UniProtKB/TrEMBL annotation:
Domain named F-box: residues: 14-64
Family annotation (SMART domains): FBOX (SM00256)
Annotated CDD domains: F-box_SF
Protein's UniProt name: F-box domain-containing protein
Highest taxon of source: Eukaryota
InterPro entries from the UniProt entry: F-box-like_dom_sf, F-box_dom
Record SUPFAM superfamilies: F-box domain
Length: 423
């Protein structure tokens, strides 16, 4: 059974509320105030689907799906909702992280990490102690100590990493007077060269992981792209679309080879079940899971959605894009299209076109030696040994993947307080 369907099945078998007919659930939802309604729609896809019905159109955004309209809540209601959401996030911390926050030494540790300054020999200046790894904080010689921006790196694939010195070199390749971008192939290992047929075919896009550096006024922006062309797990056009499990397995292979910067939830969001019914989910009939969204939100029902989700022309079975954003640090997108493959003369074979984009926040072109604060948040924790920093364990990071404090999460800004005094 698919994990999404398993959750729905658990709700259906364990919750009397979820077993009520839609008509009764709609009457319950109509009696709630806007804040309670916003909380209930987060409980399960049943309520999110019902929230997309015509009865609640006044609360929704017009074109983007069953999401809450910004002006649907008053100021005091926004404040109340944020308080409830914060309480909900507290429950996402593991028990060890919650216990550590009650220890007496917590304030002393934070005061040291935020207020104590250490010298970085790479940046030639002082930073907050929290911007150094545990091993570097213990060094007594200033001329050998490096902050995590200088010590760590961002892993693009299993063959290539990006360091701050690389970014400085690329920035130097651009000119303020010339708008021409600088391009470079970061990695051209054979594992990155994906095509559904033999490699003697002409590739549809440049091979390997590509870098494009563009000068934008005083900022320099780095854009990483990778293109892959794989057979659809279901193959021929006459066969059904892939199952969600097949698509996850395809992503896992791509992620090992070149898509390390793209998380699974961003990849699968291209087939968001709240607006799309183009994937098969194992066990969906057993769970009585209504996959199809309300008709006016379907990925094929509206012309403004059709251009995004169902491709152009009759050959595309499904086309979708999904965005990735980690605060001010980086943003990117995945673009997927399942359609007839041009490499087969009869046009009956179906392929998946994968387009990955990652944009790194602009670097100050006037002061390329100054490490951008975004880079501290972007480097991989493993590259500077965060897992060996017992001093900040369960305060800044955690090894539990289910914990909000997990060191591998990109949506948690664990360095926010360290930049208040500047870098």
């Amino acid at each position: 059974m698919d994990p999404l369907v398993a959750s729905a099945y658990k709700n259906f078998t364990s919750s009397p509320l979820c077993r009520l007919p839609d008509e009764l659930l709609l009457e319950i939802m109509k009696s709630l105030d806007p804040v309670e309604l916003c909380c209930l729609r987060r409980v399960s896809r049943i309520f999110l689907r019902l929230f997309g019905s015509w009865e609640f159109r006044s609360h929704q955004l017009d074109k983007l799906g069953p999401w809450v309209r910004e002006g649907a809540l008053a100021a005091d209601q926004h404040k109340r909702l944020r308080r409830l959401l914060r309480r909900d996030k507290q429950g996402r911390y593991c028990s060890a992280c919650l216990r550590r926050r009650w220890f007496r030494d917590k304030d002393r540790i934070f005061e040291y990490l935020v207020g104590h300054q250490l010298y970085c020999s790479g940046c030639k200046t002082k930073h907050a102690a929290g911007l150094f790894s545990g091993s570097q904080r213990n060094l007594t010689e200033d001329n050998t100590r490096l902050c995590i921006a200088q010590q760590g790196h961002l892993r693009v694939c299993r063959h290539r990493v990006i360091r701050w010195t690389d970014i400085q070199r690329w920035v130097a390749q651009t000119s303020e007077t010339s708008p021409k971008p600088y391009t470079e192939t970061l990695c051209q290992e054979r594992s990155h060269l994906y095509c559904c047929r033999k490699r003697d075919d002409t590739p549809l896009r440049p091979d390997g992981i590509q870098l494009c550096v563009t000068r934008l006024s005083t900022l320099t922006q780095l854009h990483l792209t990778w293109y892959a062309h794989t057979p659809s797990p279901r193959g021929r056009k006459s066969r059904p679309l892939p199952s969600a499990n097949d698509l996850r397995q395809t992503w896992e292979c791509l992620q090992v080879d070149g898509g390390k910067l793209i998380p699974l939830d961003t990849y699968m969001a291209c087939f968001d079940p709240n607006v799309c019914s183009c994937l098969l989910y194992d066990g969906q009939h057993k769970a009585r899971w209504r996959l199809a969204p309300p008709p006016f939100l379907s990925c094929r029902a509206r012309s403004d959605r059709r251009s995004l989700f169902s491709g152009s022309g009759p050959v595309a079975l499904h086309t979708a894009s999904s965005g990735l954003r980690s605060g001010p640090v980086r943003r990117g997108s995945v673009f997927l299209s399942i359609k007839q493959c041009p490499n087969y003369p009869k046009g009956k074979e179906m392929c998946i076109y994968h387009d990955y984009h990652l944009v790194l926040r602009g670097v100050d072109s006037k002061r390329p030696w100054r490490v951008d604060p975004a880079w501290y948040r972007m480097v991989d924790p493993e590259s500077y040994g965060l897992e060996r920093d017992d001093y900040s364990l369960h305060l800044l990071w955690c090894l539990d993947e289910d914990c909000r404090n997990y060191h591998g999460r990109t949506d948690v800004d664990r360095f926010r307080d360290f930049f208040k005094g500047g870098i």
